[in-house]
Model the fold of this input.
Amino acid sequence: AHTVRRDADGALTVGGVGVGTLAEQHGTPAYILDEADFRERARAWRTAFGTDADVFYAGKAFLSRAVVRWLHEEGLNLDVCSGGELATALSAGMPADRIAFHGNNKSVDEIRRAIEAGVGRIVLDSFQEIVRVSHVAQSLGRRQRVQIRITVGVEAHTHEFIATAHEDQKFGIPLAGGQAAEAVRRALQLDGLELIGLHSHIGSQIFDMSGFEVAAHRVVGLLKDIRDEHGVELPEIDLGGGLGIAYTSDDDPREPHEIAKALTEIVTRECEGARLRTPRISVEPGRAIVGPTAFTLYEVGTIKRLDGLRTYVSVDGGMSDNIRTALYDAEYSVALVSRTSDAEPMLARVVGKHCESGDIVVKDAFLPSDLAPGDLIAVPATGAYCRSMASNYNHVLRPPVVAVREGESRVIVRRETEEDLLRLDVG
Ligand code: LLP
Done:
């Protein structure tokens, strides 16, 4: 978060609020989100792409009603991938025509709700779904705007579980073997569908633009084939999300304006080469907008020094509020934030309170050797895919999301309570 400072006594403040106050008022663990930073990043993407392109924030990274309102105010659109995300978006007043609906296995009920609500586009992910959406739209007497998600066969250099455009995986329709071309044929034939474009998402936490270059080349190749075969130039192309952020100082992310320039140039060049009108471009960043805007505030509990082996620093959360380290071997950093310390640094592993030895938040980190129970530590860059992937493992309560801005803090997602857990347990 960018409004982070150290105050006179060495404690961290964010958005003008000290971490001590935040811990007192809201408890720990808590996700602390810098609203001004979120809005600025959203606006930077919007401005970078200008009025000839659309930015759809990927709600899966983190979605709440406050976030939907901020996005709406900053002029962004929203990508949702479930009925739950759709309900959140609509209930916070996002105009339906600014919502895109994704997913590899949308239910008929979700499709019906999306069409009834009037979503701006549904991204078709399979042959069966082309038929399904066509049926539902016809039964409602509607013609739904759709894109087709194609897998372009790019190997994105990221973790296997978050790379999505190589061909052996569950998302999209492969370009290979003429399958995507066949999908386009069917979508153009069926009633109830208005095919407005093609979609490609190659993966997540990507720094190297060359994957997007290959993807754009192949998507435009298909646009050209469609023009040659059907005489139509599809007006839109979506290049997905996936732009990386800095989790540690080794990562060097690119700015939205550089990304916008690169993507626009790639698509324009490819289209000129193919003598096509340049389609309207859209992108779907999630992590790049919300990831850096929040940190997780934990209180240090037990510290265990295993001589000659390692020091384990336990915090009051863990894999239930951040599964990314366990799941993707993700790298995070951590800092003592309730005070400063001149003590020698010690190499430590920050672990959670769960009954599992893989419950690691930060694998290797230097913390001051005088660290003690009750100190507050913060793990930065937890705005994306932490609260949204949080669980109740061990019946641990999911932390709140607290927005800070101009000296004030406000809970935007409240902490779960034991009553919340028991309410679902109706046996
Ligand atoms: N568009 C589509 C179609 C997607 O599938 C995704 C992410 C995005 C946009 C947004 O990607 P972003 O800009 O946030 O990278 N849980 C994983 C990430 C899964 C991403 C899934 N799809 C993680 O924690 O790294």
